[in-house]
Amino acid sequence: MSMIFPMFFLFTVYGVVSAYLPIMLRGIGYSVSQVGILMGIFEVAGLVFPLAMGSLVEKKGNYGVPMLLLAFLLMIIPLPMIGLKGFWVTSICLSLYAIGYKGSVPVVDSFTNRLLGENRNNYGKIRVAGSIGFVMTTLLLQFFGNSNTSTLFEYQLWFIIPGSLYTISIFFVPKVFKTDSKEVATKLEYHNVSTDNSKFSSRYWIGLMLIFLSFLGLTPATKLFSLYVTEFLNSNMAPALWALSAASEIPFMFFSGRFIKKFGSFGLIIFCTGTVVLRMILYILFPSIFGAILGQLLNSITYGLFHPAAVIFVTENAPSGKLMISMSMYSILAVGLANVLGNSFGGIMIDNFGYTVTFLSFGMLPFVGLIFYYFTRKKIC
After folding, report:
1. Helices (runs of H) and strands (runs of E) counted in the chain
2. Calpha distance 159→143 (Å, rounded)
3. Confidence of residue 332 (pLDDT cuts 50, 70, 90)
């Protein structure tokens, strides 16, 4: 339970980035295509460093120092990122910010799972604090941050304050800087689904593929959603819709342990992947605030249930001594790489083909994954 506050404040950062980062980039003067490229750079920069850091953190067993260093980036980088002008300057600052932004989640998730040990199905009860932080932040942005009139200084404040609070919260986690690797290893002696503890199983790779295609398919409804609301629906309701999305995931995330126990993490991944397809269709089938509300409510399944199931899945199938690497592969490759490709191609597709074609095209990607799973399911071990 000691990780509740860091989890809460980390996702206040995510609330600001999700609701305001693309809008802030547009406010600086970049086109939709440039925003898509910058968002792609943002995602790419967050891939390599956390993966390289994973094995070192796993070996040392000390999560506090990397957690704090990554938090400092979230607190400091917004100053030059928003205050200085120029495409390449923005790219460099976004890259540094992405290291802290993308690197923090696998570290926090891994440390939380290590603390839980055999009680890892309770992960959702702790992670729900992050969803609450996300909701509160997006609601604050809706009522106190006007995307049409906000100055660059106001954008800086919205990014710096959550990063600072997250940094401070780390110091209140008992023994976070003194984690003993032997003690932690003992806590991780729980049942592993994989029959071979020396390598990742085919079950793991197929599950990771479904997760990757699902998050790739969701990109227009996540990373580019604020642009969809402001430019396609001609509305300033993006922060409120983000709050609705995050609020809908809270009960599903809190009770995710029960669903996982009953249906299994892999079974839920398959179900949630199918729901992603439905969600993307709804945005275009009902091109209005009503359709946006329906789509955002399905975030209860496509993230509120999907994320805990995916986290438990990768911990269950992680080879011995590779929990941090397994978590990094989920967070950085399955989710991060999906966002890289989605942002890069999504912005270009919107500029050239419009929102309707983009949403429907991306929605078909997880459907392809389900077809692949159907024909390979007998080979899963």
Report:
1. 18, 0
2. 16
3. confident
User: Residue written as tokens 């269950």?
Assistant: 316
Higher pLDDT, 97 or 187: 97
> What string of H, E and C letters represents the secondary structure of 295-330?
HHHCHHHHHHHHHHHHHHHHHHCCCCCCHHHHHHHH
Q: Which residues contact 373 (CB under 8 A, 6 or more apart)?
A: 206, 210, 270
Tens-digit pLDDT profile for residues 93-134: 999 998 898 888 888 887 887 777 777 777 888 888 888 888
Task: Sort 90 into a burial class: Cβ within 10 Å, 0-12 / 13-18 / 19+.
Answer: buried
Structure tokens at 27: 């406010």
Q: What region does 179 belong to: left with phi over 0, alpha with psi -120 to 50, or beta?
A: beta
Note the pTM of the prediction, 2 decimals. Answer: 0.72
For residues 14 and 136, the answer to whether their CB atoms sit within 8 Å is no
CB within 8 Å of 331: residues ≥ 6 apart? 50, 102, 105, 106, 109
Report how far residue 5's alpha carbon sits from residue 133's, in angstroms, rounded to the nearest whole number.
Answer: 9
| Type and span of the H or E element at 230 | none
Q: Tokens 């008992």 belong to which residue?
A: 174
Find where tokens 């992050």 sit. 130
Neighbours of 258 (CB within 10 A): 11
Q: Which residue has the higher pLDDT, 265 or 55?
A: 265
With a cut of 70, say whether residue 49 has pLDDT above it.
no
